[in-house]
Amino acid sequence: MRNPVATCILGALTAAFVLAPAVGCIEVPREGKRPVLANHVEDWRDEVIYQVIVDRFANGDVNNDYNVRPGALARYQGGDWRGMQDHLDYLQELGVTTLWISPVVRNVETDADVDSYHGYWQQDLTEVNPHFGDLPALRSLAAALHDRGMKIVLDIVTNHMGQVFFYDMNLNGHPDIYIGGTGQPNAGAGTDPTSPVVRATEYDPDFDIRGVQASTSLGIAGRAPMIFFNDATINRVPPKPAIFATREAYHGLGRILNYDIEQQTELGDFPGGLKDVATENPAVRTAMIDAFARWVEEVDFDGFRIDTVKHVEHDFWKVFTAGVRDRVYAQGKNNFFMFGEAFDGRDQLLGSYTQKGELDSVFYFSQKFQVFRDVFQMAHDPTQQKGTDQIANLWKDRAVNYGTEAQDKGIHVPPYKALVNFMDNHDVSRFLFDAQGDKDALRNAMTLLTTEEGIPCLYYGTEQELAGGNDPANREVLWNTGFATGNDTFRHFAKLTRLRKAYLALRRGDTTVRFSTTHVGTEDDAGVFAFERAGGDAADRYALVVVNSNARKASTSANADGAMKVGAAPGTTFVDVLDPQQARYQVGTDGSLSVTVPAQRALILVPEGQVQAL
Amino acid sequence: MRCRRSRPLAAVSAFAASVAPVGLFALLALVVFLPARAFAQAEAAPAEPASALAEHTPATLAPPPATQATAVVAKDPTAADASPTPSVAVREGRPAQAENTGRFEFGSYGRISVASDLRGGTGRPADIVAYGARVDEASYSEFELRREDTFGDNIKTRIVTTLALFPEFFHFTGNATDHIGVRNLYVQASYKDLTMWAGSRMYRGDDIYLLNWWPLDNQNTMGAGAMYKLGADTVIAGHAGMQRLENDSQFQQIPAVAPYGFGTVPVTTLDRPRTIETLKITHFVRNSENRHVFASDKAGFKVSLYGEAHQIAAGVRKETNPDVERALPSDTGYLVGAQLGYWTGERDTYVSLFLRHASGLAAYDPLATPTTYANDQSTHGTTENLIALSGNWEKEWFGVMAAAYVRFFRDGSPAPTSREKYDEGIVIARPQIYIGEHWGVGIEGSYQQRRYALINQDQDANLTASLLRGAILPYFSPTGRGSFKRPQIGLVYAVTSRNSGARSLYAAEDVFSQRKTEHFMGVLAEWWFNFSSYP
User: Fold this and answer.
1) Among A351, B105, B135, B218, whose CB has the most other CB atoms within 10 angstroms?
2) Are A406 and A414 in contact, with CB atoms under 8 Å apart?
3) Where are the domains of chain A?
């Protein structure tokens, strides 16, 4: 080694080795690390929400395509958070400002050959679902959205967990689907009083207020033990946090049979064996608050969309919303939005969840049925279509039913002005399916969606004219469309969102219905509906929207009582900003305005002096 | 930003994959061509000393395990053991018919250990880097049967069969279905300075004993190769081979309705072997009559340059849905590397540096299937860079082996975070004290770390797994003192301290996810003799 050549060689070797680490030390990108929480929202009414089933939007990373079955819509398809981040330009071009993403937590993988691609079969509230990426990928998506001035809303479920345990009704220690009974009618766990036998499934047995009962050939034998699965191959293992792996965290009463019975809807398991959580248990409430507030802290979410709120007692919502608000408010989230899903057409029931101390808002399901279905989707069938007076009648009760007082530490907007408007979603067939492919009806409904009071929410793929029927056919793979931006529906919605952004009145103005009709046939005014957005938080800004829902003829905003009266001053000149030609209309000296709107078209009229360049 | 293969790259890739068989045949043609050139040279020039090739065999010049290598070379059919006596045919004036002087040889490599974790369980490996310390690794053995023949002065052949036994073994499990693998099954033939081979073969360069690792070249393919000596100090070796592993990306067989009669017949619908070509040039620097570089004539220095090319053709895999197929793109990769080695020629003392860069498919060992991909299902964008250092020094009653490496692996996945994006490395040293001629005690210390492009939620930082290990290895060495003397029979005790990152790599139900300290105490035996390749 004393040889100079050898010394040089050794020196070179050592130097090379010592310097090697400088070649490149790996780092998780900054946007993948824990964020500093901040409020990113000025007024939620300015937002346009876009609902995404993550598995179906875009596949940005093939490495999380575990067990995907391309083309089988009940199975995973491969979409992920990175895919969404890759297509933010598409979303911005469409004009959406807030992404509502499907649940992010880890799920039971599959059940009865159907997968948890939707995310509602939660098993571990503390971990991400690896099908969609890792935590840095989720944080990165949120950060990318915030960088663009966009927001992100997380879908959460407090009502139930996935199918994490079975009821051992025959006490044999493993889950069965079997035929049982005592030979005596109605002596088993069945609901048919005349049958001496029952078909029982220990995965998803019928509701029983006593608790799901064990039974033998001699009769019932007390409550069936609830036994947690431990099947790691499909991640059907005891849930987390730990309290959800205890029997005390569940009601254990079996599957809801009758949705009209409040006791069943609140205490029963959700169909599919989704185990109903004992949300009245204080420890469960604390765990829920902690689990979901933690996601806000980990990712910087701007709001919660909350699943199945009508299956949880009101008292829970008071505690949960207060707990979450207190925690995130203290960290700078002073405009955190919580809106719930109660799949129900009863307006008063929906409004019960936005009363003082509960949610900021709910999905306007009653409008989905009474307006978007009855007035717009049924335009192809005058025997089914309803008059636009149904819209006016629904809207007039908003303040009463939903409340006029904003929630403490909430979004600073009263619930009746912040309802989440939607035409369809992942739980119902798509608009075009029920409308039998009537794209004019779709685009006309979009106009109402984006100009009415509240917060518009578009279900992914509507802009691509997807037309699937009920679940899972309505959960198509979006990337098969190529993310085209040239079709009429995409362009129409994009224009509407530009208008909404440009005109404060369309976002924050109060609503006054100026014209509606019971007519749906050949009458002059058949299908016309007109409403003003003005005043309120829009100050002197003004817009008048006139829609014709009639699919067969042009209709006019006038009836036997005369032309529509508007709130603008007599002589005001309106410009139709939806019209590429920007047609002009003038208010009569008596304050009336008679406009004729082509079939399934609309006008968005603003005073000439308020027209904005888009 | 997603890492997508550009169209030109895809075209190149597709072309490369399509011409892979051509490349393979070209290399085989080289194998055919070189003998012809060798024949011409043999007629035109006097033969090199017959021992030259043997001395320049890489195994010889890679001291660890030098004892083993030396033993092999002594029996290399290319070595100078040909009979000086003219053949009978020559004496009788008949046309030259080579006289066969052949023999069977048996060689073996093996290590076997059994250990306790001192908690009532079996001692188990705790390494977290790709090439960790071998002190706690599993048992393994190889048994090699060779036929070696010499035909006249210039032609020699070797037929090699090596069977390997993989754990667990019968006496441990009670299960007699031990796992056996064919590690070598090839024919090698030499004519003067040219050696050719064909078959299934382990094809390797120098290793780092402490890590049980061949950091530059380690091929396990079915194919063919050739080695040719250029002058006295340079050797060029090439090889081409293929593998078609039974994994989802290379092979699929589906049942089809039998064309006659009833039932089904299996139909192979996906069949895309990986083809690999390698080329290695090694140049030696030693003292000679005209050159005095080193203080000792036993010392030497060598430089090896090495390259690989990998290709795989496009294919189609049928999904579970019968009407859905997944296109698998063609893929390519390359690897370049170098080794610098210096040895004193005394007591197996040496030091070696390895540098390697791999890209695409070549970043994955051919026996390892990529687990992550670019979005086009290729390995495009994958890179591996490594630097490794190893050495051994012995003097009188003391010796020390040491090694270290750093390795930077980046998969082609589009996500910036991935379990296949990481930096890793290890530093390890095993000083030994020789007690008399046949006894010794080794003390081994090592530190290894892997830093992932994954988030450690508790620390809001990269997930960094590391472990610190100390071991003591008292042993008996029947063949004498030295780090590379075998066989050895001894005891082993290793204690490993594992950080939270290392523990987090295991499932919650695994005790390795909970225990900070692991013990490994047992017996360890290792041997090698008369073996034609490293284990």
Assistant:
1) B135
2) yes
3) 35-159+279-502, 165-256, 505-610
d(CA A522, CA B427): 88
Q: Among B294, B415, B421, select the one facing A26 at the smallest CB separation.
A: B421
Say if B89 falls within a structural domain. no
Gap between the Cα atoms of A53 and A430, Å rounded:
14
Q: Using CA atoms, how far apart are residues B322 and B93, in angstroms rounded to an integer?
A: 73
Q: How confident is the model at residue A6 (pLDDT cuts 50, 70, 90)?
A: low
The angle at the Cα of B254, spanning B252 to B257, to the nearest 5 degrees, equals 155
**What would the CATH number be for the domain defined by A505-610?**
2.60.40.1180
**Quick check: B462 and B454 in contact, CB under 8 A?**
yes
How far apart are the C-alpha atoms of A318 and A324, rounded to whole Å?
A: 10
Helix (H/G/I), strand (E/B), else coil: B459: coil
Beta bridge partners of B387: B355, B406
Q: Do B423 and A70 touch (CB under 8 A)?
A: no
| Shortest Cα–Cα distance, A109 to chain B (Å) | 17
Whether the CB-CB separation of B370 and B364 falls below 8 Å is answered with: yes
CA distance B124 to B135: 10
CA distance B450 to B407: 9
Query: Can you give the residue range of the structural domain that contains B185?
Result: 7-83+103-113+131-242+271-426
Number of folded domains that form chain B: 1
- The Cα of A233 is separated from the nearest Cα of chain B by a number of Å equal to 13
Instruction: Look at residue B473 and tell me if it is in a domain.
Output: no
Q: Which residues on A lie below 8 Å from B301 (Cβ)?
A: 5-6, 9
Residue B109 lies in a domain: yes
Q: Is residue B451 situated within a structural domain?
A: no
Q: Which residue of A has its CA nearest to B339?
A: A13
List, in sequence order, every beta strand (DSSP E) within A113-183: 114-115, 122-128, 151-156, 165-167, 177-180
For A35-159+279-502, the fitting CATH number among 3.30.460.10, 2.120.10.30, 3.20.20.80, 3.30.300.20 is 3.20.20.80
CB A207 within 8 A of CB A255: yes
Interstrand relation of A114-115 and A198-201 (parallel, antiparallel or unpaired): unpaired
Cis peptide before A532 (omega within 30 of 0): no
**Is residue A340's pLDDT more than 60?**
yes
Euclidean distance between CA atoms B370 and B453, whole angstroms: 17
**Chain-chain contact of B321 with A71 (C-beta, under 8 angstroms):** yes
ipTM of the complex: 0.90
The pLDDT profile of chain B, 535 residues, written as one tens digit per residue, is 333 334 444 444 444 444 444 444 454 444 444 444 433 333 333 333 333 222 222 333 333 333 333 333 333 333 333 333 334 444 444 444 556 679 999 999 999 999 999 999 999 999 999 999 999 999 999 999 999 999 988 999 999 999 999 999 999 999 998 899 999 999 999 999 999 999 999 999 999 999 999 999 999 999 999 999 999 899 999 999 999 999 999 999 999 999 999 999 999 999 999 999 999 999 999 998 888 989 899 999 999 999 999 999 999 998 877 778 889 999 999 999 999 999 999 999 999 999 999 999 999 988 888 999 999 999 999 999 999 999 999 999 999 999 999 999 999 999 999 999 999 999 999 999 999 999 999 999 999 999 999 999 999 999 999 999 999 999 999 999 999 999 999 999 999 999 999 999 999 999 999 999 999 999 999 999 998 864 3
**pLDDT the model gives residue A4:** 66
Q: In the numeric block, which tokens belong to residue A112?
A: 């009865």
CA–CA distance, A260 with A211 (Å, rounded to integer): 19
Tell whether A1 is within 8 A of chain B (Cβ). Answer: yes
Paired sense of beta strands B439-456 and B418-435, if any:
antiparallel
Phi/psi for B470 (5° steps) reads: -125, 145
Helix (H, G, I), strand (E, B) or coil at B306: strand
